[in-house]
């Protein structure tokens, strides 16, 4: 009866240790690896994560694979998960040999369904913090999580791909990828909107929030609350990189350094190099201030969503940048902001003008 031999029993601790070893091995070739490693038995803790995972049960064309997918996530077998507009990509450890590569493409939410979600939430979600933390009326939650009319994709709106030999429409590695995304929603709930091609600005008035925060209004989100719940930047990417230190050439005032002039007194070493505030949108391009970012967007006559699209970011992230005194930006975000500012031909306004 060799056909029913499933091999020796492997404990959860052994499976997690094996997965961790594989993750460390993969990180040597891919430093930007984003593994999914839940701390306990529960995959998700937030409203968005729990609702997503509950919705996955409607995909049970092969119920046993749904359960195996949950186990894979709990055992830290999802070595990498990357989410982008309409697509999930993952690397999932298998029982034997090399890990498998998984791709899930997701259709945008149908216009009619999105309209219904907007109608249900109109005027009833007080802030972006309330939206992302799932603090809104239960009937709105029910509309958002409705299997047929909500924000979560139906099985027919998904297309799966996995390098494993399983013939099922949804193999256990695909199921693990989907459950891993549910866990990721605990830290980055805005990724659901990105995945489904929906703009959260249409549920919460980000423009009004940004104006209120700029004016120091009571509805502005506290910096510590934002950072504590969602981090500094909401978009999913590689590990946060610190802003590069000013080069020695710039500190010494060399003529080939940015802002350096022959014969001029070099700036103090403790300060980053700065170009005249009269001819730049940002006083310090390496550390743009939130007020400066908001001013640039308004002077370009762009909405939060349009400005975010120009930067390749999310409206939630842009709205948060504008609220913080000096937001922590990734190198790529700083470069795009400065390129947009320089390309606009705008100048930093003089006082009194």
Give your account of this protein's structure.
- The chain is an alpha+beta fold.
- It has two domains: 12-200, no CATH class; 206-253 and 275-344, no CATH class.
- Helices cover 42% and strands 7% of the residues.
- The protein is built from 15 helices and four strands.
- The chain has helices at residues 12-29, 47-56, 63-74, 111-121, 128-132, 138-145, 172-187, 191-195, 206-214, 223-230, 248-252, 290-299, 304-311, 315-323, 331-344; strands at 78-84, 87-92, 100-106, 158-162.
- The chain has a four-stranded antiparallel β-sheet.
- Strand 1 (78-84) and strand 2 (87-92) form a beta hairpin.
- It is globular and about 55 Å long.
- It starts with 11 loop residues before the first helix and ends in a 9-residue tail after the last helix.
- The model is unreliable at 1-6, 216-263, 268-279 and 346-353 (pLDDT under 50).
Please describe the structure with a list of short key phrases separated by commas or semicolons.
disordered C terminus, 353 residues, disordered N terminus, four-stranded antiparallel beta sheet, 2 domains, 4 strands
SSE string: HHHEEEHHHEHHHHHHHHH
Q: Return residue spans where pLDDT drops below 50 for at least 5 consecutive residues.
A: 1-6, 216-263, 268-279, 346-353
Cα(first) to Cα(last) distance is: 87 Å
Structural class: alpha+beta
Fraction in beta strands: 5-15%
**What average pLDDT do the residues reach?**
75
Compute the number of strand runs: 4
Strands of the largest sheet, in order across it? Answer: 1-2-3-4
Largest sheet descriptor: 4 strands, antiparallel
The shape is globular
Instruction: Specify the number of helices.
Output: 15
- How much is the radius of gyration in Å? 24 Å
How many domains is the backbone divided into? 2
Helicity level: 40-55%
